[in-house]
């Protein structure tokens, strides 16, 4: 060994939680419960043999493992667990699971509240946490951890289709949260690096390290020897790789004497504990005679060493910003399930707003929903062979079980919301019910927006069987005010959309009644022919036809092939669509890459690009447009496009006549392909020449390319509610109700530019809603075929801070509540 330095190597043994990657989800739950039992049994055996307790230490990777253990273990094992936590031989982690950024702030808080309460209940507050495999987490995630007592955090990410931040790993830094609090973070190496260094007997591998041993390991020419030869070869690899690893750190200027290594008992995700790891470390300690000292520790013990050695002189750097997740895009492979999940998240937040103390609803339903939502947002997006063997029964079974978390979370929270609304006067349908409704604004801001009331197809109004040809009016029961409305027929009811202004937390009772029928005679000016076709351009207050729709706030123009080509804000004549946009607003772009070698290898070679130079790109072409609805509340146009990879691509535009908002439904019939695919919806908007782009993520608002950790991803983001463009006091926001992924910049494959923390060019680039993809080579759902509908809302404001505007976006996204009442 070249180094003259004395090294302290701290080994943290854990089991990486991948729920559904290696086995069915319910089996994984059982595994992790049993892994803790196995760790306890190993410790019992050590203590029972009279051996020194120092040696074996087990680190629980997350609180979810502990939660499951308590649900399944008997009292004796629970007591043993708590004892070994108190001795430091079992470590706790303050992270709930390895999450994607899909997780919502309220659901995350709910999970972390339980973690914090558990630590206090056993007299051991949980102050350290870890994540493994995942490539980042929203800036607000760090704030949530801090808020619930976590002060130290270990990241051992997996730079496959991703990369670590700060341009360098194996170093500490303080992650300053949006509120100015600080987490001490260890920016660590791969979570199986200890296995690559053969610290786990019969648990070695070759993945990140490429040397003379790698071919032998790949060809299984090591572990199939006899026991003595296998042991000798493993020790040879362990010492050679360890010395090279430490020598390399020293050559790179690594300043510390301590080095942490994560290890698993076997070389797999969801691995059982390995008591023999302690034996291997003891053997290495004897071999190096104090030159390298190996010791198993838990997270808290490791960070005590970090604070003592690395932080004593105040040299640990501080960084602020978003730790943008390279793996957030898995949600694009399951757009239907994600849509259902996001609906559940909205209902969960509404329940919290309507019933903050859980006095009206059912706390158990709320708790069950939060747990299911956390499980769906966990980072595993399918079985390990989802792409290579999409026909396999286990692949489809695990896809359905993963989706069940979103379904169950939605069901639980819907039941809870129904119970809350029943307590607030909601009644069920009945044969003779009056058409009386309650409308609630559950939010902390005023809204001038829409609400929807429904008349069932079988209902009578004032003794008359209702159909949409009968004129109706909506009236405020308290004031007698007539509320503007517009009616359309849907599958089993008439939908009445009302235009309503409501103060924060306001409730109003409204009724539907028959109105006087108005008959029209023939008019004496040129407006429409006898055939009923309106194709004359006449001088009216507002124009509403296939080429232009004008409202109180906007002039929307539509062009051949491109579609929505211009949206002008009337108050100042400002164009809201970028002049450099090739695509019309909400039009589609489809990408497909033909396999070069195999479905998996083609995807692997994409690296961080999610496409390659061989990717073929197609833009939608408008083939027809028409006005399909026109009333007192809104005018609706249907724009039909042709787009490769789809059998249908339709943009349904609703322009509200008296509100500064547009609603768009993008309806797609996606064909099924095995090849790597991407489908984008164009969001080519701007608030002006100096527009700054904002996105809201879990618990935070950031400026892409600016408010990020150096070296992080700046190509795409997983957002909670909306993209916001602001130029001074002028703002435009697009709420992405169903599709949370957005990507910035041109779509072409290119060398990846990591975030420098000041990339204003990237911040000012074009934005796309990334509605679906299947590019990952292992565990994404490969089949994107089917029918989809993605909802967007555009709103324009001339005042307000980003924080104020995002409160409005959240309120608009969650909407008003309207239901039958007495």
Describe this structure in words.
The chain has 822 residues and is α+β, with helices and mostly antiparallel strands. It is built from 16 helices and 39 strands. The longest helix has 31 residues, at 393-423. The mean pLDDT is 94.
Which tags fit this structure?
822 residues; alpha+beta; six-stranded antiparallel sheet; 27% helix
Overview in brief:
The chain is built from 16 helices and 39 strands. By secondary structure, the protein is an alpha+beta fold.
Chart the SSEs and their pairings.
Elements: E1 7-13, H1 25-48, E2 58-59, H2 63-72, H3 75-87, E3 90-91, H4 105-121, E4 128-133, H5 139-147, E5 152-157, E6 171-176, E7 182-187, H6 193-196, H7 214-218, H8 227-251, E8 258-263, H9 276-288, E9 292-296, H10 299-309, E10 318-320, H11 335-354, H12 363-377, H13 393-423, E11 436-440, E12 447-456, E13 460-461, E14 464-465, E15 472-476, E16 482-483, E17 485-489, E18 493-502, E19 507-514, E20 548-550, E21 554-559, E22 563-569, E23 574-575, E24 588-592, H14 599-604, E25 616-619, E26 621-630, E27 634-642, E28 646-656, E29 661-670, E30 677-683, E31 692-697, E32 700-702, E33 716-718, E34 722-727, E35 730-736, E36 741-744, H15 760-763, E37 767-773, E38 786-797, H16 802-814, E39 817-820
Parallel strand pairs: 1-8, 1-9, 2-3, 4-5, 5-7, 6-10
Antiparallel strand pairs: 6-7, 11-19, 11-39, 12-18, 13-14, 15-16, 15-19, 17-18, 20-21, 21-22, 22-23, 24-25, 24-30, 26-27, 27-28, 28-29, 29-38, 30-37, 31-32, 31-34, 33-36, 34-35, 35-38, 36-37
